[in-house]
Amino acid sequence: MGPGMIRPRGREVMTRAAFAESAWEPCAPERFAALWDAAVAALPEVETEELALVSGLILPVWKHLPKDEPRIRRLATDCGQRLIGRIVAPDQLGDLAGAPRPLDPDSPASVARAVMIENRTVALMHGVRLRRRLVGGRQRCEIKGATAGMVPSLKAAGCFVEIIQYQARVFAPLDMALRPEHVAALKRVLEMVPAVVAREAAAG
User: Has residue 46 been placed in a domain?
Assistant: First the structure.
């Protein structure tokens, strides 16, 4: 490993081979100190830069984050709040728009979005699964694995049963619009059969 330099935003280290090919030239310590002090004096007292900090559970979206700055940063705001996460430039946030969001199994809205928008299969207790299915030209939320004993309670919660190819299939009243009344029905379903995992496999 070659020389290193501590800068205001981090430490820069170069290999000896890279240093030999760079534009750096030998310099006496006194001259280097004078040039460094002059460069520091020319800097503005305050520099403002807009940035975004991606924090929280970022593992599901890690591959969507810029690969040129993989370090985790710890920041403190003027009011004393401490933050930790990956720094992303504002113009790079568009890359995260289509990334799957972390699933909160206790949030019906999060579960509904995971199933209907992100096309993920969500596991519930007793081997039941929620998955998006195209039926009759419409995307629906099927409650797969529901037993005959569960059907009356599910229908009371707002679900419905359709006979498709001689088989009874149970559906929650969800569509791509994720209307509040439909999410409320899913909430009643999840109260009976809770989600059991926070990270789901993609629907196959």
Answer: no
Task: Please check whether residue 41 lies inside any domain of the structure.
Answer: no
Domain with 161, as residue range(s), is 108-192
3-state secondary structure of 92: helix
pTM: 0.50
Query: Residue 158 contacts by C-beta under 8 Å, 6 or more apart in sequence?
Result: 172, 173, 182, 184, 185, 188, 189
CA distance 182 to 162: 18
> Based on the domain organization, do 113 and 80 belong to the same domain?
no
Q: Nearest-CA neighbor of 171 among 200, 114, 132, 136?
A: 132
Q: Tell me, what's the pLDDT at 199?
A: 40
Residue whose tokens read 């919660």: 157
Number of compact structural domains in the chain = 2
User: Which residues does 71 contact at the CB level (< 8 Å), separation at least 6?
Assistant: 86
Sign of CA dihedral 40, 41, 46, 48: negative
Asked, for residue 114, whether it belongs to a domain, the answer is: yes
Give the Cα separation of 15 and 17 in Å (integer): 5
CB 73: neighbour CB atoms within 10 A? 15
User: Is 170 found in the same domain as 113?
Assistant: yes
Instruction: Give, in order, the Cα–Cα distances in Å from 24 to each of 14, 17, 27.
Output: 11, 12, 9
Q: 105 is written with which tokens?
A: 């199994």
Task: Return the number of other C-beta atoms located less than 10 Å from residue 117's C-beta.
Answer: 14
* pLDDT over 70 (residue 102): no
| Residue 175 token pair | 């569509």
